[in-house]
Amino acid sequence: MNDPLADLARVEGVPSALAAARAAVDTILRDRGMRAISAADSAEAVLAAARSSAAIEGWSPESAEAAGVARMLSELPAMAELIGVAPGQALARLHALWGRGLVDDDTLGRARSEATARLVGLYDLLTATTSASAIVRAAVAHAELITIAPFESGNGVVARAAEQAILMAGGVDPRGVIVVPAGHLAAGGAYERALVGYAEGGLTGVRRWLEHCAAAISAGAERSPLAARPVRRRGPDSLI
After folding, report:
1. Helices 134-148 and 189-199 sit at what angle, rounded to 10 degrees?
2. CA-CA distances (angstroms) from residue 145 to 34, 78, 96, 119, 216?
3. For tag attachment on the chain, is the N or C end more exposed, with fewer CB atoms within 10 Å?
4. Is 177 helix (H, G, I), strand (E, B) or coil?
5. pLDDT in tens, the chain (240 residues)
C-alpha cells in the first residue's frame, strides 16, 4: 500500500524524534492524570496556545487578531472530529472563526482558486489510511498550509490550529492541553528556517521540519497547564 507519511516517519533521525515527543506528551498526560483535566485546564491551554500563535505573527495579546485565534482554538474539539473526514470544511471553518470581523465576509473560509490543486492533494493525505504517527500527519499539514497559503490572510494561525486538531484526532493530545504553538514560538528563527527548508523541497528539508515539529511538541508539553501539577505517585494497582 502506498503510504507516503509512513515513508517519511522512517527517515533517519525522525523515529527517535517522534518517540521523544510522544514520551514527553505521555509523561504529562499520564503522570499528571489525564482523567482529571478540568475545563479550567483546557481554557488555560487554549489561551496559552492562542497567545503563542499570535505572537509568532507579531500580534499583541490584546489585538483583535489574537482574540480571533482564541475564538478559533476554542472550537478545536469539534474541528478534531471533522478534519480527518472533511478537511476542507474543517479548514474553512477554522479560517472563518479566526477571520470574523477581521477580513471581508466574502473571503471567510474561502480558499484562493490558484491553491485548489495542491489543497486537493493535502486533503487526500489527511483522509488516507497511514501507519505513521499523527505527529507526522500534523507536521506535514502545518507546513503544507503555510506553503500553499490558501487564504488571503491568517494562514499561519490556521496551519498551527490544524496541527493541533490533527494531534487531538490522532490521540497524541486528545484533550488539547499540549501547548504546541508555544514550542514553535520558543524555537525562534529556527521555526521559520525549518518551514523554508520544507518549502524548498528535498528530503533533508522535510526531515528537519519533522524533527522541529517533534521538538515543538515536547516543548509544548512542558508548557501545558498540567505540567505545573505535582507528579502523581502510582502504586502497582494504579489504573493511570
Report:
1. 80
2. 30, 20, 15, 8, 18
3. N
4. coil
5. 689 999 999 999 999 999 999 999 999 988 766 557 888 999 999 999 999 999 999 999 999 999 999 999 999 999 999 999 999 999 999 999 999 999 999 999 999 999 999 999 999 999 999 999 999 999 999 999 999 999 999 999 999 999 999 999 999 999 999 999 999 999 999 999 999 999 998 999 999 999 999 999 999 999 999 987 766 555 444 333
As given in the structure block, the three cell numbers for residue 13 are 533521525
Which grid coordinates belong to 228? 505545573
CATH of 4-228, one of 3.30.930.10, 1.10.3290.10, 2.40.40.20, 3.40.720.10: 1.10.3290.10
Domain ranges of the chain: 4-228
Q: Which residues, in sequence order, are CB contacts of 23 under 8 Å at separation 6+?
A: none
- Going by C-alpha positions, the residue among 186, 143, 172, 155 that lies closest to residue 51 is 186
Cβ(16)–Cβ(40) below 8 Å: no
